[in-house]
Specification:
The chain contains twelve helices and no strands. The chain is mainly α. It has one domain. The radius of gyration is 18 Å and the shape is globular. The two termini are 20 Å apart.
Length: 290
């Protein structure tokens, strides 16, 4: 796992495998929603991910300084809120649309404060993408689902900002492991209240373990490995492919078909994300999205 040379992949294949893993995990999650609900599924994913990461990384919690706790706790809470809101969106709208709208958060962060004309192009493209998805007429797209996806994107932007602060005080793997522990706090109460966790069976728990591995443990491992050698800008451009991968995964694994206009929206936001990465100085990697 973390830092083990036996499992080292070249950086670009590692990022691409991470993207495929995340979208496969999202498909597993959507299959669990009818039994566990979105909150219950998020609770299982985050709870099991935290246990696996803590067992693998074994961070020395007793040696963390007060400044490190002040950084990692809000980082973890933002991570939990992001995943909870994303699963809420995923329960209502297709996977491709949920990931596409979630990407608006880090894209907005990358463009925040910019006054260059070229960045205005990316803003217009992203706005056009959102407009193509928005249910201006009765299109059958759930409005609450769209709102939850955008809220998840806002949490993703906050998560990136807090992640920078945390990374400066705590190395990557321990930060993710401890952060995942606190990510469970805003999610577990809803999972318990919704009653989905009471429906857990050994079979569902096994699926939940697969969800944790594919959605959290494996992607975080691969992404941190890739970031050791891959320029941040290149990494972020590759991550911009996630909405396309999500739309294709939704089609292949879940039978979700997007309209031509929705596919165009995905393309607009992918181009805006990649373009902003290329033209914005000091672009931050969008690690660990949904």
């Amino acid at each position: 796992m973390f830092g083990s040379s036996r499992f080292t992949l070249p950086a670009v294949p590692a990022v691409l495998l991470s993207i495929v893993s995340v979208q496969g995990g999202a498909a597993i999650a959507k299959g669990l929603f009818p039994v566990l609900g979105a909150a219950g599924t998020a609770s299982v994913r985050i709870g099991l991910s935290a246990l696996v990461l803590l067992a693998v990384v074994r961070p020395r919690l007793g040696l963390l300084r007060a400044a490190q706790w002040r950084a990692v706790v809000p980082y973890g809470l933002a991570l939990g809120a992001m995943n909870f809101l994303f699963y809420g969106a995923l329960a209502r709208i297709p996977l491709g649309l949920a990931v596409t709208l979630e990407f608006v958060g880090p894209l907005g962060l990358a463009l925040a404060g910019s006054r260059r004309w070229v960045d205005g192009v990316w803003v217009v493209l992203a706005a056009a993408g959102i407009a193509l998805i928005a249910p201006w007429r009765s299109t059958g797209v759930d409005v609450l689902g769209l709102g939850l996806a955008l809220a998840a994107g806002a949490c993703w932007a906050v998560y990136i900002v807090l992640g920078r602060r945390t990374a400066a005080l705590l190395p990557g793997a321990p930060a993710v492991a401890v952060g995942m522990l606190f990510a469970a706090l805003p999610v577990l109460p809803f999972g318990v209240a919704g009653g989905g966790l009471l429906a857990l069976t050994p079979h569902l728990l096994l699926l939940g373990a697969g969800l944790a591995v594919f959605s959290s443990v494996l992607p975080f491992t691969l992404e941190m490995q890739a970031l050791r050698t891959l320029p941040t800008r290149t990494f972020s451009i590759l991550m911009s492919l996630e909405p396309v991968a999500a739309a294709v995964s939704g089609w292949l694994l879940l039978g979700e078909r997007l309209t031509p206009g929705q596919w165009l929206a995905v393309l607009f936001i992918v181009v805006a994300s990649a373009g902003a990465t290329l033209t914005t100085p000091a672009a931050a990697p969008a690690v660990g999205g949904e």
